[in-house]
Amino acid sequence: MKKSKRIIGLLLAASVAAVSLVGCSKSDDKSSGSNTGSGDGKVTITNVSYDPTRELYQQYDELFEKYYKEKHGSEVEVVQSHGGSGKQARSVIEGAEADVVTLALEHDITLIEEAGLIESDWIKEFDLDSSPYTSTIVFLVRKGNPKNIKDWDDLTKDGVEIINPDPKSSGGACWNFLAAWKYALDHNNNDEEKAKDFVSKLYANVTVMDSGARGATTTFVENGQGDVLIAWENEAINSVAEYPDDYEIVTPSISILAQPSVAIVDSNADKNGTQDVAKEYLEYLYTEDAQKVIGENGYRPTNEKILNRFSDKFDLNVKLCKIDDFGGWNAAYEKFFDDGAIFDEIYDK
C-alpha cells in the first residue's frame, strides 16, 4: 500500500513537472542550457533549483538582468530549471547543464561536489555558508482547521490524512522529517526507539507522497486531497495569500531552520565561460534589493534589517532546531535517508 502511494505521488509530480517546463518560457528555445551568447553578445546562464523557488527566481532574475545591464552594458539571460532538490542534483551529476545550483539543502550540492563538478570549498565561497535565505517547516490546513491540528503529535492520530513529499527526491521532505524527529526526541527523553515509532505512525498517515514539495502543494491545494500539508513556510504563505478563505497556517511548537544552499557548478561554468557571471548572480542574492524580493516571496532574508520588515509574515518566535543538532548533513543523510537507513525502515514496514 505504501509503495503504491509513493507511485501515485511520483505520477502526479511528473505531470506537474511537465506543466512547469511549459511555464518556463525562457528555457523553451535553449534546451541545451548555458552558453556564452548567440551573436548579440547576450550571455545565458542556467540556474538549476528546487521546485518551490520558481516564482522567487522569476522575480529575482528580472532584477538581476536589469542590474547586470546597467552595470556592464551587456545583457544576461537566466534560464530556470525546477524539480525535487535531490532529483535536480542527480540530473546535474548526470549531465544536465547548470552554471549555478540553488538547492534545498547542503547535502544535494555536496553530491555534485563529490562528482567532481563543484570545487570542494564551495560552502565558503559566499556568505553565511552559501545560504542567502532561510525557511522553516509549517503545516497548511483547511480553513477552520477541522481536524484541530496544532502540533506534530496531532499528525499521528487516526483519520488524519497527510500530504508530504518523498525524502528520497525532495530536500524539503528531508527538513520535514528531521523537524518531526526532533519533536519526537524532545517529547520522549531522547529515546530514539520511541522517536522511530512516532515518525512511523506519522508516515503511516501519509496518503500521497509526491516527489517534490511543489507537487505536494498541488496535491493538497489544487486537487483537494488530505487534511494537512507538511510544507515549506513559503509554500504555505503563498497558498494562504492566494486562497485566504480556504487555508490557514499552523506553526508547530518546534520546527527546523532550513538553509537552502547555492553554488557555482564550476566544471560547467568554466566550460561555458560563465564563471564571473555565475558568481555575480549568486553574490547579488545578498544585496538589499534581492533580500526584499526574497522576503516578498515568503523566504526569510538573512539580512536581519530586511527580515524584520517582514515580521508580520513570519513567526520569528518559533523554536527552531538546526542541522548541527543532527551532526551536520552528511551524518543526518547517512542515518536517516540513505538506502536502508531509518526512513526506509519506518516507511517500508
Number of strands: 13
Look at the structure and give the CATH class of the largest domain: Alpha Beta
- Taken in chain order, the helices and strands follow as HEHEHEHHEEEHHEHEHEEEHHHEHEHH
CATH topology of the largest domain: D-Maltodextrin-Binding Protein, domain 2
Q: Order of strands in the sheet with the most strands?
A: 7-6-8-5-9
Q: Any guess at the CATH architecture of the largest domain? A: 3-Layer(aba) Sandwich
Flag low-confidence runs: 7-39
What does the radius of gyration come to?
Answer: 20 Å
Share of residues in strands: 15-25%
Distance between the termini: 10 Å
In total, how many domains does the architecture comprise? 2
| Largest sheet composition | 5 strands, mixed
Structural class: alpha/beta
Can you describe this structure?
The protein folds into 2 domains: about 30-135 and about 260-310, 3-Layer(aba) Sandwich (D-Maltodextrin-Binding Protein, domain 2), CATH 3.40.190; about 135-255 and about 320-345, D-Maltodextrin-Binding Protein, domain 2, CATH 3.40.190.10. It starts with a helix and ends with a helix. It is about 45% helix and about 15% strand. The strands form 4 sheets. It has a 5-stranded mixed sheet with strand order 7-6-8-5-9. Strands 2-1-3-11 form a 4-stranded mixed sheet. The chain has a two-stranded antiparallel ribbon with strand order 4-12. It has 15 helices and 13 strands. With about 350 residues, it is an alpha/beta fold. α2 (about 55-70) links the parallel β1 and β2. The chain has helices spanning about 1-25, 55-70, 85-95, 105-115, 125-130, 170-185, 190-205, 215-220, 235-240, 265-270, 275-285, 290-295, 305-310, 330-335, 340-345, and strands spanning about 45-50, 75-85, 100-105, 135, 135-140, 160-165, 205-210, 230, 245-250, 255, 260-265, 300, 320. α1 crosses α8, α2 runs antiparallel to α12 (about 290-295) and α3 runs parallel beside α4 (about 105-115).
